Amino acid sequence: MFGKIKALKQDKNVVIIDFEQQQGQIEIITENIINVFSGFETKEHQSRAIEEVKSVNTEYVVIKKEDRIEIKTTALYIEIFDEFKVDFYDINHNLICADYRNERKVSTQIDQAAIELAAKEGHFIDARTLSKKIQVVKVMDGDECFYGLGDKTGFLNKRGYEYEMWNSDLPEPQVDSFKALYKSIPFFITLKKNHVFGIFYDNTYRTYFDMGKESDEYYYFGADDGNLDYYFIAGDKMPEIIEGYTYLTGRTPLPQLWTLGYHQSRWSYETKEEVKDIAKHFRELDIPCDVIHLDIDYMEDYKVFTWSNERFKDADKVIEELNQDGFKIVTIIDPGVKIEKGYTIYDEGIKNGYYAKDVEGNVYENAVWPGLSVYPDFSDEKVRNWWGDNQKLLLQKGVRGVWNDMNEPASFNGPLPDDVQFLDEGKGANHKKIHNVYGHLMAKATYEGLKRHDKRRPFVITRACYSGTQKYSTGWTGDNHSIWAHLQMAIPQLCNLGMSGLTFIGTDVGGFGSDCTAELLNRWVQVGCFSPLFRNHCCKPNRRQEPWAFNQETLDINRKYIKLHYTLLPYLYDLFWESQSNGLPIMRPLVLHYQNDRNVKEINDQFLFGETILVAPVVVQGQRARSIYLPEGNWIDYWTKEVVTGGKYILREAPLDVCPIYLKAGSIIPNYPELHYVGEKEVVELTLDVYEGVSEYHHYQDNGEDFEYEYGEYNEYLFSIDDKGIFTVQLASNGYSKIYQSFKVLYKGKIIVVPFNGEKVEVQL
Ligand code: GLC
Q1: Is 302 touching ligand 1 by the criterion CB < 6 Å?
Q2: Number of structural domains, the chain?
Q3: 267 alpha carbon – ligand 1 mean position (Å)
Q4: Tell me: the pLDDT tens digits for 424-459?
Q5: Which residue(s) pair with 743 in the sheet?
Q6: Ligand 1, atom 7: closest residue by C-alpha
Q7: Residue 730 maps to which CATH number?
Q8: Which residue from 98, 259, 262, 364 has the least number of CB within 10 angstroms?
């Protein structure tokens, strides 16, 4: 496809190589991040994920050898051969990742008769072809584990499976054989014995990832359209790879504190009376809750940016009333705009040419909840601005967050044809190119609109994503089911999403489709407690699953874990603060921090919440004890305070109300006092739960709401405990006036209250 190397030139950070048939480029983004590019479609990158120039001035040398070009940065060797084969070596010249030199071993013998026979009973087989125009095939050494790739189903390690990036709204129970779901995050991490690295294939068309399914000798990624445009991200440790990937595609900005509280949803709370009743239950039953979601029935005939006059008359007054009681309202907004003359949103969009068109230039129509609808063309800035400005219609009613759904985009009358036309910022593009970024661009429009019209940090949830959506939105995993398999899947799915840059993520707690059981909800709330987006949501015809929907025991267990989540809010907020600067997820697989421990590479039913809290939930019906793997070091059982030495499996009893939790020795965990919602009362005393040993912890505090922290209005506390048990607290930054008045230190069974006035304090514990 490329032919032999013919010539070479350099332009700043870019090495341009002329091959016989095609030009290729290697760009040194940083010493550890290398872009491999060849413009099959356009000469330039056309990224929707990387929105700023990321190349920094990096020292590197280029040497032309007889059969290759060698590039050396301070961290990597890159060798480029004929046919644009690229190999990466570490600085000691150990091979990290090589291109495969042979032909792929795909079987072209398709047994058509067998396929047709199986199809009679509904078994559909996807015939594999060689037709991927752009393909990068990498040598597999044999011990690779693959992580990331967004929301793919199945287990943590993606080795041995193939996937596609094509945002898909698939409501049937999602199983391991699904190749695509709602999100397209073409990024994965490869972990092998001596190396770890990431690859981000920045191509918005339908892309393919075979992680060693076709052959044990190689894995590959490819596409039928677009450019060859991938980033190789090197580092010593897995967190550095995520840091590199989010350096390119962006990080989750600090959210408002209340968004980290508990969210209650259902399709739908249909009247304002019902919403008030839900709110009343939370307060009366002493269950903390910050957010109630309004699904599509709050609208008039599912027309976005309208309110049902019958069911939500005077919505602003009700929302204000709820707000007084600490509840924030989040409303759903789908992209589909109902075709109805006289409906302002529809008319405005038609007048201004804001909707996607068919090849003949007519506005393209398909059906979603409102019936026949049109699709705003978010690939154009003026449409995004218009859509963004419409958010003020929600803000004016008192709405505090916007939930973007159905933005794959979903369509009830068959998929959108490939040739539906989009503006693509004036360049023009078809549906094949825009599909995977449609939801991403909708979320961007929503975020930017909210930011223009409100001084508070925008809160957006989206179902469809592309790489980089984390800058604008939180995400949830879409329509799971109330089945145990989906509770089990939630852990690897959320961990892989987190490693794919989506820090703020959650599943529908209790499951969306199918009927939940009391036991399932009890176990799911124990996982939800440790996921950054903690929302119980459920489908219209299915059994109710609010915390009180079953029995007293279920209510008590829900209360216990929702309260625990609120206790841990300052720790969670600290993790978000940290993630702004390194992109690390909140829910982490154990392998992220213990990559050299072979026991953790494929742990699917345990995870870390931050670095120091290990959660081992029960995800099997009827199970009342489970084995837990604790990595090296000492771990403290959260419930019994027993100290357990790690590096081994243990057996732990786990009655229905117990989710096993372990704290790493040396942890300091900040806790809030009991709150029913964020802002119920000012937190003047912070509790510090200290777990053995010498430790240090940075804690972040601000007003939890606006962007003043960007101008220094925040406090950063540094807590430490030395080997003599001396506790020190000092302010590392002091820009926010409401400093804590005291700290309640829980240490080795003692409670020590340490008064604080902003000056450094040292106390013997
Ligand atoms: C989709 C969403 C779901 C929502 C429903 C109705 O199925 O994924 O969360 O409740 O639409 O709006």
Answers
A1: no
A2: 4
A3: 7
A4: 999 999 999 999 999 999 999 999 999 999 999 999
A5: 686, 754
A6: 479
A7: 2.60.40.1180
A8: 98
